[in-house]
Amino acid sequence: MLGGEAFTVAIIEPAAVPASARRGRLYSQLYFQVLVAIVAGVLVGVLWPETGAALKPLGDAFIKLVKMIIAPLIFLTIVTGIAGMGELRSVGRVAGKSFAYFLFFSTLALVVGLVVANVVQPGAGMNIDPATLDPQSVSDYSAKAHDQTLVGFLLNIIPSTFTGALAGGEILQVLFVAILFGISLSLIGERGAPALAVLQSLSAAFFRLVAILMRAAPIGAFGAMAFTIGKHGVASLANLAALLATFYLTSALFIFVVLGAVAAWNGFSILRLIRYLRAELLLVLGTSSSEAALPSLMEKMEAAGCPKAVVGLVVPTGYSFNLDGTNIYMTLAALFIAQATGVELSLGDQLLLLGVAMLSSKGAAGVTGAGFITLAATLSVVPAVPVAGMALILGIDRFMSECRSITNFIGNAVATVVIARWEGGLDREALRLALDPQPAREHR
Fold this sequence. Notes:
This protein has 444 residues and is an all-alpha fold. The chain has one domain (4-443): Sodium:dicarboxylate symporter (Proton glutamate symport protein), CATH 1.10.3860.10. It has helices spanning 4-20, 30-47, 49-54, 56-83, 88-120, 139-147, 150-156, 162-168, 171-187, 193-213, 217-232, 235-239, 241-265, 270-276, 278-287, 294-303, 308-321, 324-340, 347-363, 370-381, 391-394, 397-422, 428-435, 438-443. It is globular and about 70 Å long.
């Protein structure tokens, strides 16, 4: 469609430059700045806990800045992508492949967490009496979990008004109205060309705004990490070190073995993809929020040769449906609570837990603290495991949320490249230059 090619070049060039040519000094690189900020935040949290806890607004402010632009960015990317695809059948095909991929790997992540919990048994031997636990400490999460039903979740995808989706910032609502509008714009043909040109210009402006806002990423990461350590303390990690270690190792195995095999099968390296996204991953680590890096992920996936329409559909949808880290956490944490409280779960109970988790992980998507809330929703349906047992992991959930977010983020990056390849739209040369820019520099 007219204007589409020029727009693609305008967006991809700025994203490709930092990956290969704009190396400069180490201290000028975003990933280095964020890494220094995280270390500084940890030191402040350890040495001056009260000061660290008081720095929470810095992290909150940065996340709010990013969330401010997520809705219009997703809307513009999806609308211009769909309108430029030509055939509407392509939209349905991409969506179908995406959901099939998400369902398979989300279920696999749940199974992995279940198997690891049975083999390692991190909660065995704790012998905690459920009656001694404080159910009030998790009452707020339980209340939110009861509000998250599958029917309510599906109805919530439809916004009250068209503009309400953009104003509310609900990712799935924005996705819904953007797909409908993109289809409508495509159907009216040449009459929609002026509107498409305007939307493409707006999209370019919003991507530039992303680059401006990302300059504040080190400040946000510093504040968020200082708060986490200052509020919860490093000592809180030692109390439940077995669960933390098991979860982190399981997530690492899932990333490097499962997703690594998927990446290799599709012709790219998971290690090089992680290196390519290192600045975003450090940001996710510092803020414990994968949403903080969503705009930058979309931009970098386009720069790595993934079509705009695929990026626009896969990334936002994956943020709600492709939660590998959250799913590993759910089954692993549920069995940990059962083991710690001396509850014996039969194979049937564990399969019921798996089935409920498959549904509840979708019903609580997009909710703040979704991992913990989803776990509460799952346990409330499986009476064998006491919901009050969640109090055991409440103190370390913040540390676990960082690993959940990183695993979710990497899973969605891999999914985007894989589905782009399945669609036959992956630019392999752009992907090679993005993931391994060394040959390009040597050639120059």
